[in-house]
């Protein structure tokens, strides 16, 4: 009798245990946050969730024609330039 099923069950159990340990870690202990303060984590999250950055992420994952993609990139560049000029 082979023990393939037992191996699979043990593998699943170990994966679940590892996932539970990862869930129980605090934000400061997680790999992506090591060495970052609360303010640094908030700033990183704000940068990721900025509307222009979300648009860039969406556009980078779409299967669109190159010309359309270049137009969108140019619009983003113009928006960023306008924001930079407004800050001055």
UniProtKB/TrEMBL annotation:
Would you tell me the protein name for this molecule?
Answer: Small EDRK-rich factor-like N-terminal domain-containing protein
State the source organism's domain of life. Eukaryota
Q: Which family does it belong to?
A: Belongs to the SERF family.
Residue span, Small EDRK-rich factor-like N-terminal domain: 1-42
Provide a GO CC annotation, any one: cytosol
What ranges does the record give for the region Disordered, renumbered to this chain? 1-37
Q: Give residue spans, biased composition: Basic and acidic residues.
A: 1-33
Give the source species. Daphnia galeata
């Amino acid at each position: 009798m082979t023990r393939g099923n037992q191996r699979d069950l043990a593998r699943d159990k170990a994966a679940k245990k590892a996932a539970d340990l990862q869930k129980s870690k605090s934000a400061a202990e997680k790999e992506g946050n090591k060495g970052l303060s609360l303010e640094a984590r908030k700033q990183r999250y704000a940068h990721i969730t900025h509307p222009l950055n979300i648009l860039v992420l969406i556009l980078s994952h779409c299967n669109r024609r190159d010309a359309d993609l270049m137009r969108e990139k140019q619009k983003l560049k113009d928006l960023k330039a306008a924001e930079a000029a407004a800050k001055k």
